[in-house]
Amino acid sequence: MKIDLLPLGARFQWKGVTYTKIGPMTASAEAGGSAFIPKHAALRPVPGEAPPQTAAQPKAKTLNTARVIAAFEVYHRMALTHADEAGRKALEAARERFLSELG
C-alpha cells in the first residue's frame, strides 16, 4: 500500500509503528506524535485488521468539443485584436493547427 492511495483515517503500519492517516502524506502515530510518510514507503495493514480500503480514484473529466471550440474562438478573436498583420497571420495558422488536432 502507498500513502497516497489511502483515505484519511485509514490505519496502517510502517516501520513497525501503527499510524492513522491525517493528511495527504502525514500520519499520527498510535503512541503519539506525527510523521511524514513518503510516497515510496511500503505500508502494511495493521495485524488483525482488514486492510484499509484504497481511496476511490476520481473519474477523468471529459471535455465537450463544441464548448472547447467555442471558448477557443472567443479567445482567438480577442487575440487577433491585439496583433499586427504578421501576428494575425501567425495566429490564423496556429488556429488551423489547433482545430485540425481536434479532428
Task: Characterise the protein shown here.
The protein is α+β, with helices and mostly antiparallel strands. It is built from two helices and four strands, in the order ββββαα. The protein has helices spanning 65-81, 85-102; strands at residues 11-14, 17-21, 26-29, 34-36. A four-stranded antiparallel beta sheet has the order 1-2-3-4, with no helix packed on it. The longest helix is centred in the last third of the chain and has 18 residues, at 85-102. The protein starts with 10 loop residues before the first strand and ends with a helix. The mean pLDDT is 91.
* Spatial separation of the terminal alpha carbons: 40 Å
Oligomer: single chain
Order of helices and strands: EEEEHH
Continuous helix count: 2
* Helix/strand/pairing category: alpha+beta
Radius of gyration: 25 Å
Largest sheet: 4 strands, antiparallel
* Spatial order of strands in the largest sheet: 1-2-3-4
The percent of residues in helical segments reads 25-40%
Q: What's the average pLDDT?
A: 91
- Strand tally is 4
Beta-strand portion reads 15-25%
Question: Which ranges are low-confidence, i.e. pLDDT below 50, for 5 or more consecutive residues?
Answer: none
Q: What's the overall geometry? A: elongated
Offer a few descriptive terms.
single chain, 103 residues, alpha+beta, four-stranded antiparallel beta sheet, elongated
